[in-house]
Amino acid sequence: MYGYDDLPRLMGLMTGDEKHGPAATSTLDVLWVLYDRVLRVTPERRDDPARDRFLLSKGHGPMAYYAVLAAKGFVPVDWLPGFGSYDSPLGHHPDRVLVPGAEIGSGSLGHGLPIAVGTALGLRAQGRPDPAVWVLIGDAELDEGSNHEAIAFAGPAGLDRLHTVVIDNSSASHALPGGIAARFEAAGWSAVTVDGRDHEALYAAFTAPHPGRPHVVVARVEPKNS
Hints:
Blueprint: H1 7-12, H2 21-25, H3 28-38, E1 53-56, H4 63-71, H5 112-125, E2 133-138, H6 145-157, E3 162-168, H7 180-186, E4 190-195, H8 199-206, E5 215-220
Parallel strand pairs: 1-2, 2-3, 3-5, 4-5
């Protein structure tokens, strides 16, 4: 079994070009806290209809995601050195058909949150109130109109099993008046902004009650180009 301190070594096994290092490392702590302490999903339950769903929309630079999946037993550690090679299942963008535990193929900005909204709606229609839906997006994705439509819909729809984590590494091209959390709050979401490297703060934010409303956690990390 691997722990948080093993993640840098696991990430270090993945070499090659086009690694998008800052995109990967910005997500590391959020991913670990979710998979270690929050998400109700295991390798044995990855096809269980009652599992929580985690959707990685910020799919470019997925090394942290792969490292966490390996640490938790979803994928073999010996897959990691082949990252990005022709015959490796671990591509530069995750493929849900090839990567055990991946709920969606990802990497194109702006599609993960709309899919998460649809997933939450689908679970509601199936009469499954227990599974939580989590989606991790980057702040630059908020430049995409598809996300704003999803935000505007989810609040009034009362999708309280929907949770979004926004990695804020100051990459967005367009300023959001009042900050990222304010945009979600204006659409009826519960919102909290925390230090994206503080595990206890992240856990408290992830588990904060938000009855009747979807929930967003804005995780601030160091600027991408710092």
